[in-house]
Design goal:
This protein has four helices and eleven strands, in the order αβαββββββββααββ. With 212 residues, it is of the alpha+beta class. The chain folds into two domains: 122 residues; 72 residues, no CATH class.
Amino acid sequence: MRKTNKKINKKGFSKVEFMVLLAVIAILIAIGSKLALDSSKSYGSFKTLANNFANAVARYKDKAIIAKDEYSLYETSKNGYIDELTSPFDKNVKCDKYESYVNIKDSSKKSIVLVCGDYLVEAVQGDYYKVYEISSWSETKDELHNDGDILYNYKQNGNLALENYVQQKSLIGIYSEKTGKYISNINDIKSSGTELVTKMLYREKKLLKEFK
């Protein structure tokens, strides 16, 4: 029987195999560290985005014709106080101009909601920031789709005016934009004689990151 010069360590690996294994582990660690760093940077970008939005609203509210506690991204950007916002994860995805808003009732702790594609930020400026991953709205209610809300549409000439059902803030914003009338709440739409249609829908809302 031929003897082999190949040296085997106690665990059964040759020196070459052991070196390859170390190299693979090093590569995996490097990739994992990079992914963690990229993810951290992205979530931090959501915080920066939310703060920029809140600060823009603070500037705008002093000049706004109608004083109120809450301002949407739509009216803040329309009046030139901030550019359209895009998702840090995808620059082609714009943040929802109606569902993104800042409540300044307590000016020292502005409440922020920012919706950018599949991501939702809920924050109180200077206190906490929560980043969620959200799914599309569905009629299915289960363990995953447990975040429910009443969504709206309205009728024109007997037909639904909007392609999809939307949340109340979106309906108010879209209706105001389409009609050119200032609408502050859902009752303004009802009192105009417009027929509203509602539907209870659900989505998945998963917390990804919480930080200060």
